[in-house]
Amino acid sequence: MPTTATVMNKPYVLTETRKLTPTITAYTFKAQDGTSIDFTPGMFAMLTYKDSNINISRAFSIANAPPSDSLEFVIALVHGAFTSKLENAKVGDTYYISAPYGQFKFESSADEKILFFAGGTGIAPFLSMLRSIRAKKINMDCRMMYSVKYPDEIAENEELNQMEIDMNLKTFITVTRPKPEDNWKGDTGHVDAAMIQKDVPDFKDRVSYICGPPAFVKAVKDDLVSLGVPEKNIKAEMWG
Ligand SMILES: Cc1cc2nc3c(=O)[nH]c(=O)nc-3n(C[C@H](O)[C@H](O)[C@H](O)COP(=O)(O)OP(=O)(O)OC[C@H]3O[C@@H](n4cnc5c(N)ncnc54)[C@H](O)[C@@H]3O)c2cc1C
Fold first, then answer.
1. Ligand 1 pocket test: which of 60, 127, 211, 235 has the largest number of ligand atoms within 8 Å of its C-beta?
2. Which helix (H) or strand (E) holds 86?
3. What are the boundaries of each domain within the chain?
4. pLDDT of res. 238
5. In this structure, are residues 217 and 185 in contact, taking their beta carbons and an 8 Å threshold?
6. Per-residue pLDDT tens digits for 71-119
7. What is the pLDDT of residues 197-218, one digit of tens each?
8. Nearest CA, atom 17, ligand 1
9. What integer pLDDT is reported at residue 114 of this predicted model?
10. Mean pLDDT estimate for the chain
11. Closest C-alpha to 103, from 9, 35, 39, 29
């Protein structure tokens, strides 16, 4: 089957679900006709659920590396209109996908130093970017600050640890709502200017990519600007 640049409302079959955290599940869909799709890491797809009563679409960042005949999504199950359908989804179910979309594209060259900021499921596009860098064996200098509410909400923790061995990546995780029994030894609280300066002192030499809920994206972007990072070196994707 050929690799195509875009798909419009094409049937995709759910081939795998993996529970990553208590609230986040990874869903993998494969094109019914086997078409591979090419996309730039960071882009998103529109997923549509249809039955005789409803037709509902939502945007989700693609989490796997291109090109692929499968698309993986890392989704927080928030019991909303779309995610409550996914909560009951079974392998073999058909959803409809249009893709790829968006301007949050990872187009940095190998000589650029990178700094990712992920808030919660905002990790999804960075998984695609990191998996793509790993697959292409590019020796890119990457740092990532990843904010989660609880330690058990870190998605793909094992893979991220393995990436630190396989690639030039260092991830700094901050837990915003640690409980004493978590015994969490890393950063705590929201990402702020002091945390950025402490964890990634050469942040001004890096191209920054930020993804997550609007409050997270705005706060991190404001911090970077207040620390003197030019806006042209900041790329952001806001959900919601
Ligand atoms: C470009 C882009 C990329 C995105 N990528 C991702 C991604 O990779 N992963 C991801 O998880 N999300 C992603 N999103 C968000 C996603 O598109 C949806 O907005 C999200 O999944 C919620 O959709 P929903 O239909 O389930 O909730 P909606 O019905 O639209 O409800 C919106 C919000 O209301 C609350 N809510 C609604 N109903 C209930 C209820 N019954 N109980 C409790 N709370 C409720 C939830 O907090 C929910 O978030 C992305 C959004 C954009 C714009």
1. 60
2. helix 83-87
3. 3-101, 113-238
4. 85
5. no
6. 999 999 999 999 999 999 999 999 999 999 999 999 989 899 999 999 9
7. 999 999 999 999 999 999 999 9
8. 59
9. 98
10. 96
11. 39
Q: What is the mean pLDDT of residues 65-76?
A: 94
Rounded CA separation 129/164 (Å) = 14
Rg of the chain, C-alpha, whole Å: 18
Residue 168 to residue 128: CA distance in whole angstroms: 16
What confidence tier does 48 reach under pLDDT thresholds 50, 70, 90? very high
Pick from 198, 200, 154: which is nearest to 175 by CA? 154
Cα of 228 from ligand 1 centre, angstroms: 33
CATH code at 3-101: 2.40.30.10
**E strand or H helix at 118, and its extent?**
strand 113-119
The CATH code belonging to domain 113-238 is 3.40.50.80
- Check: CB of residue 12 under 8 Å from CB of residue 97: yes
Query: Closest residue (by CA) to atom 39 of ligand 1?
Result: 80
Q: What is the pLDDT of residue 2?
A: 66
- Please give the number of the atom of ligand 1 that sits closest to the Cα of 56: 25
- Find the angle CA(50)-CA(52)-CA(54) to the nearest 5 degrees: 50
pLDDT at 38 over 80: yes
75 CA: nearest ligand 1 atom: 11
